[in-house]
């Protein structure tokens, strides 16, 4: 479970301070797919960086399965972050490494034994449907295939939470649907909690259980997707 408690993040740009996130409180239950939607500048990226401990809130706290990630530092933060994985809009793959090597990378960093990495990578390749592409380089893959690598890599260390940052925004509509189906499948199969940020209503409608609508750093609406997106 993820709890955001009265989070504020102020960027002090020297002249006019900006509240990128302004008094946001949210709860994401275990196993939910939770969407955060808003226009550019609404504060979505800042919120996701607070969720994975890349930014510290100016005030408030972020609890992930009871652990205060916003207060964690050093080794504690590093270990907590291994369980909070990210999927990115522009994939962020290592371009000089193969599909398998990209997926193995975070496990190597975490210090997993070689044999375990090998088994897990094979399992993940199957899961995301990249059989036969193990030794390809990212430049030889389509956008959808690159994102499948991004998802497999994010799952390598069996995270508690998957954070998707505009994960389908660089993809065409058909590929977007395939990637959303994959995320839904992973969520249903493993009960993995997914938080995704997007500016696309379609993404939220297709896979999210709940949604928060952000505007100027604030959550202006929150609830079940059917309720928030249906006019009374
Ligand atoms: P979104 O992801 O919804 O586009 P952001 O979280 O990137 O929104 O940005 C929210 C607001 O905070 C914007 O006004 C942006 O300019 C500002 N902002 C974000 N990051 C920084 C930063 N590191 N320093 C100063 N201002 C920032
Ligand atoms: P795509 O064009 O497949 O959508 P991106 O534009 O998201 O990929 O690429 C992300 C980053 O990686 C960019 O900075 C881009 O310049 C760089 N990049 C893309 N392809 C390669 C490659 N084959 N080798 C090295 N860097 C690359």
From TrEMBL:
Which UniProt keywords are listed? Amino-acid transport, ATP-binding, Cell membrane, Membrane, Nucleotide-binding, Translocase, Transport
Question: What's an example of a GO molecular-function annotation for this chain?
Answer: ATP binding
Q: Give the main location.
A: membrane
Residues in domain ABC transporter?
2-232
* Name of the protein: ATP-binding cassette domain-containing protein
Lineage top rank: taxon:
Bacteria
Protein's UniProt keywords contain Methyltransferase: no
Q: What is this entry's stated membrane topology?
A: Peripheral membrane protein
Q: Which residues of the full protein are shown?
A: 1 to 232 of 340
- Location in the cell: Cell inner membrane
């Amino acid at each position: 479970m993820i709890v955001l408690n009265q989070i504020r993040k102020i960027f002090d740009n020297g002249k006019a301070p900006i509240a990128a996130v302004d008094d946001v409180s949210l709860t994401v239950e275990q196993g939910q797919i939770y969407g955060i939607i808003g226009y550019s500048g609404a504060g979505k990226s800042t919120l996701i960086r607070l969720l994975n401990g890349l930014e510290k809130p100016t005030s408030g706290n972020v609890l992930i399965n009871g652990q205060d990630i916003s207060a964690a530092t050093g080794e504690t933060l590093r270990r907590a972050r291994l369980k909070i994985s990210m999927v990115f809009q522009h994939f962020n793959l290592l371009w000089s490494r193969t599909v398998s090597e990209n997926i193995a990378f975070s496990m190597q960093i975490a210090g997993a034994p070689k044999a375990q990495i090998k088994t897990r990578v094979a399992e993940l390749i199957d899961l995301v449907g990249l059989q036969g592409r193990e030794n390809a380089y990212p430049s030889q893959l389509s956008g959808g295939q690159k994102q499948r690598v991004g998802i497999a890599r994010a799952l390598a260390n069996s995270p508690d939470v998957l954070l998707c940052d505009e994960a389908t925004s660089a993809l065409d509509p058909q590929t977007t649907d395939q990637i959303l189906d994959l995320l839904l499948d992973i969520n249903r199969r493993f009960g993995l909690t997914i938080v995704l940020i997007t500016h696309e209503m379609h993404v939220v409608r297709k896979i999210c259980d709940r949604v928060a609508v952000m505007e100027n750093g604030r959550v202006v609406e929150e609830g079940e997707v059917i309720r928030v997106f249906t006019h009374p």
